[in-house]
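Methods — Computational structure assignment.
A single polypeptide chain was analysed. Its primary sequence is given first, followed by the predicted tertiary structure written as structure tokens.
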Amino acid sequence: MPTDPLIHPHQTLITPAGEHVDVDLDMIPVIGELWRLGFTTTACCQDVGEATAGVREQRESPLGYGGDAFINYHRGWALLKLPTADARRLVALLADDPQFADRVSHPWRPGSWRMNVPLEPTGLAEAALLHFPTEQIPQLAEALRRH
């Protein structure tokens, strides 16, 4: 199955499990700190809207998602995808951090995170999607370094 083109500048890293993965450059400090703390990550993106627009422009067939409204809604938002248990642990850790407590505890405020676990016919998905303002990437890396 062909993969979509990489849009953002990236670097290939080796996960704690020994896999080679491409990580957007801006996300490398966050991913490194998450791995150091024992979290598993399954995907990340430094700007979901921009990446979706870029993939849409380069693909021969439609994405199946990623219309203009999706792209506009996700511009300026970074993404972390983690197993649900790890996502819950991360949110609990950040809820104790003064810089992130309000951001992960109070949805729909400016700067707050958008977090969801998709509902599937058999229950909740195994992975959670955490969207947060791209401008928070350096602050998140620093908060994780403190733990």
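Note: The CA atoms of residues 80 and 88 lie 12 Å apart.
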